[in-house]
Amino acid sequence: MRIHQHFSVVGFCNTYVIGDNATKDALLIDPGHADIELIRLLEQHGYTIKAVLLTHRHSGHTEGLGLLKKLYDFTTYAYEDPRHPIIPDEILTIGPFEIFSYLVGGHSRDSVVYKIKDALFVGDALRAAALGKTHTHRLAEHLKDELNRIFSSLDPQTLIFPGHGPPSTIQSELLFNQSLR
Amino acid sequence: MYSFTRCKVSSCPRYATHISEYCLAHDPRQDLAPTLSFPVLDSASLSNWNCTEEDFSGKRILGSLFSYSTFHGVSFVKTTILNSNFSFCLFEECVFDESTIRYVIFSGSTFTQCMFMNSSITHTNFNGSVMRDCDASGSDLYYSSFAHAHIHNTKMEDCNVRKADFRHTLQDNLSFRWSNYREVL
């Protein structure tokens, strides 16, 4: 499995391409913007997009879907999606990928975190050393509790790929993220 | 992309290398020369490595794991480092000048007398790191995070620090002269 990051200048969002070296199947997470760099990344590696996973449906994380839909044939999954809903705490198998989903809410009602192998894709629930933005303190407390629950069940070396900013690890967040305490 | 495969020795907390089922401590005779001779290090796993005066200049390091390693006098000049993990490492007298570093984790690492001049260091995690007598002047630090870092006698002059994160840092003689410090997060 290989994880590629693509930075979208629209919405400053990270889009992640998770490719399988053997089958060339790929997942996309949060296509905030589909530009020539993202298309080139997919084409250079010869990836076939099997699915797009949305951590939440804010426009900065979904605006690339329109163009990608015109170019590729894939299924889009999101929490409470009427056609392809993500079911929290269950494993979803897409091609060679096993995806475990956690519903965390907080930043938005539909915020989910995806775990694929040793990597967590947290969307806007978390940024390196900062909790994701929430509308109220109660939601922030809820988000903190949910993230701590997830982190306590996983290996501290698990990688964290947020929707904005640099990657991190659970260990780094537990040590240097004050808002999780 | 690296994977977190534990060393085969039971109770050993370290990770196996990409060329062995054991970590470097339990199989110190591993031959790293072929790996290091390639211009591209891809998916290498070298945790707890003691690296001295190695020359990575001009190389590409992609999706590789070097956590808990020590680097002394290592050259990363004009090196491209993407999506790699150098968390909790020790860097002494290392040179990263004119390097391209993107989506890399250096959190918890210590840098002493390291140079990062005229580099592109974007979307990189330095949270909780310690920097002493370093110089990153002329570098693009866009969206890199230094939260909870302790930065002493260090220059970040004429840098692009837009969206860089310096919250909760301990700053002692850190110079941002000519940098756009108003644009940090």
Description:
The complex is a heterodimer of chains A (181) and B (185). Chain A is α/β, with parallel strands linked by helices. Chain A has a single domain, classed as Metallo-beta-lactamase, Chain A. Helices cover 22% and strands 35% of the residues of chain A. Chain A is built from four helices and 14 strands. In chain A, the strands form three sheets. Chain A has a six-stranded mixed beta sheet with strand order 1-2-3-4-5-6, with helices on one face. The radius of gyration of chain A is 15 Å and the shape is globular. Chain A starts with a strand and ends in a 5-residue tail after the last helix. Helix content of chain B is 3%, strand content 23%. With 185 residues, chain B is mainly beta. Chain B is elongated, with a radius of gyration of 16 Å. Chain B has one helix spanning 33-37, and strands at residues 40-42, 50-52, 60-62, 70-72, 80-82, 90-92, 100-102, 110-112, 120-122, 130-132, 150-155, 170-175. Chain B is built from one helix and twelve strands; from the N terminus they run αββββββββββββ. The longest helix of chain B is centred in the first third of the chain and has 5 residues, at 33-37. Chains A and B meet through β1, β14 and α4 of A and loops of B.
